[in-house]
Amino acid sequence: MSETAPDTPPTPVTTPITADLLRGALDLEPTEDGVLPHRLPAWARAQCPDGQLAMAEAQPSGVRLVFRSRATAVELETRPTKRVYTGAPARPDGVYELLVDGHRAGRGSVGGGNTLTIDMTTGTATRSPGPSGTLRFTGLPDRAKHVEIWLPHNETTELIALRTDAPVEPAPDRGRKVWLHHGSSISHGSDAAGPTTTWPALAASLGGAELVNLGMGGSALLDPFTARTMRDTPADLISVKIGINLVNTDAMRLRAFTPAVHGFLDTIRDGHPTAPLLVVSPILCPIHEDTPGPSAPDPAAFAAGRLRFRAMGDPADRASGKLNLGLIRDELSRIVAQRASQDPHLHYLDGRDLYGEPDHAELPLPDGLHPDAATHRRIGERFAALAFAPNGPFRANGAVRSEE
User: pLDDT tens, 117-148?
Assistant: First the structure.
């Protein structure tokens, strides 16, 4: 049944941005103009005054506004924080993606905003304030619908105002299982094409799950506060991808690694004793397969305006317990096998089943560490095919309802 458009446009409706309109955020920090989503709670952030972690957890990978409305026009005013790396090419603006009833219906970016200038040679960063901007989506279908606006996975985003041409209400729970995932910058999204095609977001879509993404660039370091956050976060399905950050930061030796993994898993199990828990080892990364960290930007590539990483360790240091990816995979496999005898819901996935040597020959890691957009899609599709398969760890024992 068609409806006659009014002679004058309706008065815009401004809806306060509150926690019941957001998915994937664990905390909302009030700001002078709006709210800032966080993926770690305030108590956890207070336990680690690290600039890299602060930047990563405030980048809203997997965070989306979700609501029901008949609105045909939606405006979102935000203040992004753009990263500028001294001496490196300019980064593209973060991407917002609009989904209507589960289908992509638009995408765009917000210019302006704050600027964070990072000098990777000195490890310093300076911040400059900037104005907010507004993203507008129009031409939405004039019917009640499920609307999602996925925020940029790699750009800190202060939410200032949500304006529509019809009232907004929180979306009802669709009955999907909540998948809680933790990992490194690869899980965070690195160079994915947009927030819905980071590999965890894509896998969640294919598996019919609601994602809470705790993938944090440079910060998958078996931190106790992250384990306690996962313990306390409601979830039906859980995965942890462990390894690459421990190597490329040279943060740990084998003696500390093994009990740290056990402790991390113990803490998660304190809050989720029977949820499917999948331990994922690193994808292939040739520079660190045999060579320990740390990793650092390649000066020659940097001088040419390109960012590429190289391993700075010595393969011979493995004998003294320095970690490389091969050692980590062996130890994770052993730990899971040991624990699984008492924990039938614990599972292991070799990351090379997601991205291995044949994949690297076809789709090499552009900077030596991070997958590009095509590789994110491949990893996400493979993870979904393995984890959400009928006999996979996330489908077993009714972990996800069969109709989804």
Answer: 878 777 788 888 899 999 999 999 999 999 99
Paired tokens of 149:
């606006």
Q: What's the angle, vertex CA 239, arms to CA 348 and CA 274, rounded to 5?
A: 85
Q: Hey, what are 356's tokens?
A: 């291995």
Tell me how far apart the alpha carbons of residues 289 and 106 are, in angstroms, rounded to a whole number. 40
Chain-centroid distance of CA 281 in Å reads 17
| Spatial separation of the C-alpha atoms in residues 93 and 154, rounded to whole Å | 9
What is the C-alpha to C-alpha distance for residues 222 and 233, in angstroms, rounded to an integer? 17
> Could you tell me what percentage of the chain is helix, strand and coil, using 3-state DSSP and rounding each to the nearest 5?
30, 25, 45
Cα(394)–Cα(386) distance, integer angstroms: 9
Model-wide pTM > 0.70: yes
One-letter identity of residue 346: L
Nearest to 183 by CA among 263, 274, 94, 280: 280
From the CB of residue 320, how many other CB atoms can be counted at a distance below 10 Å? 10
Q: Name every residue whose Cβ is closer than 8 Å to that of residue 264 and which is 6 or more positions away in sequence.
A: 222, 224, 226, 227, 240, 242
Q: Distance of CA 316 to CAs 4, 181, 255, 293, 322, Å?
A: 76, 33, 17, 12, 9
- Please report which confidence band the pLDDT of residue 400 belongs to, taking 50, 70 and 90 as the band edges: very low
Residue 334 has a CB neighbour count (10 Å cut-off) of: 12
